[in-house]
Design brief:
With 492 residues, this protein is of the alpha/beta class. The chain is built from 17 helices and 22 strands. Helix 5 packs parallel to helix 7 and helix 13 packs parallel to helix 16. It is elongated.
Amino acid sequence: MTTKVTINLLHTGVPGLDEVFGGGLPEYSFNLVAGPPGCGKTTLAHQIMFALATPERSALYFTVLGEPPLKMLRYQQQFDFFDRKLINHGVRFINLSEDAMAGNLDRVLRRIVDEVALHRPGLIFVDSFRSLVFANTAEGNPHNSLAQFVQQLGMLLTSWQATTFLLGEYFDELDANPVFTVADGLIWLRQSVQGNSMVRKIEIMKMRGQATLPGLHTFRISSAGIRVFPPARVAVATHAEMTADPLDRRLLMGVPLLDEMLGGGLPNGYSLLVAGPSGSGKSILASAFLAEGARGGETGVLAAFEQHPNRARNRVLADLIHRGQVGLVDSRASDLSIDEVVLLIMSEVRRLGASRIVIDSLTGFELALAPTFRADFRQSLLRLITTLSSEGVTVLMTSELEDRYTDLRFSPYGAAFLTDAIIVQRYIELGSRLLRVMAVIKVRASNHSNALREFTISDDGISIGAMLPNQEGLLGGRPTNRRYPEQEAAAE
């Protein structure tokens, strides 16, 4: 019977990256970080280095024909993860450019061996390793063997019990490269310009002994450094949650008569789509939904993809955010990934223990996504709703609809089937006036009103009136000249 060797996993200090690695980076692994210029290789290496380096587990950072250490540090110290106290104590920079320019890989290897033997680091970085490839192919150096160099370097650094990173400017040259064969881990960074957006993605193409998350994962570089956005995990429901009937508990909407139209309120854990044209009152209804939850002691989250809810626009909602009863996700970036959006929302949900979520609006949400995710918005929307529903929260989404007065639509994305309930707001022309009307289109597994009711908006919010006369045809938007009973009385 053999005893399984336990591999210690290191926490990289890069949010989301440990999850993509499958729990962390294997200690003493020999890794290649590859990608085109400007994709974030050096930033990723520095962020990992400053997170892991200590005086006891020091780091050596070798630079080869790239940026001089002083120039590199000038820019890298702008990031939040940079720790000046570690320089020359837990982190040392060594310039190999003179050895590399001689075109002799044996000389470079000896220099690395000497420095490692002197300092005995636990972390080693070589940036940029691709420069050594050019040295190997230089004319007049037949004794240089890149394959032999890589194999020797890998064996030596592993025997010294060092976790190693080789950084190189590679694109898609995977064929017959000895580096890719020897490396334990192959971390590939990619970037592309889509419209006016820069989309960056990371892929773990290889990691020995680890069950990594497959596929491409978007990441963002900010003043805090790199943040990776792995796919959101769908929560596994307990047996009690699976057998619970959502109709047993209904949430009040905060609008008189609307709960009655829904059949007693919105079932807990449902997703509700509120669709209507501009100015019809979708955001006001969404605010009332969050405010009603706050009155009952519930917390909520607002994902605002259009207007920031400042006090001038919505005093009630702004006060709830100020008091911490409603969390705000307010991203104005135009190149978000669906995983980034889900993570931003779920971080606020878990921070507050929120039970109500408002996404205002799906139109703004679509425009906030990078073009590659916008191309299949229904799939992105499905991932968002599935993740939020698995957390047991109740979701209200608003959606902009063009009021054509001749047809009836519930969603511009053909995604109405994804939601559990739908409320449609419309304009109608009645008696030379433009009125707002509202109807509940569906509530899954529940009886609900099919009445079309006029509603008004005032400083106190939404007020729903009586059922409209002559409902037939109004929901489809066809105008009518029939007057209200009070108009008939006034005319007589």
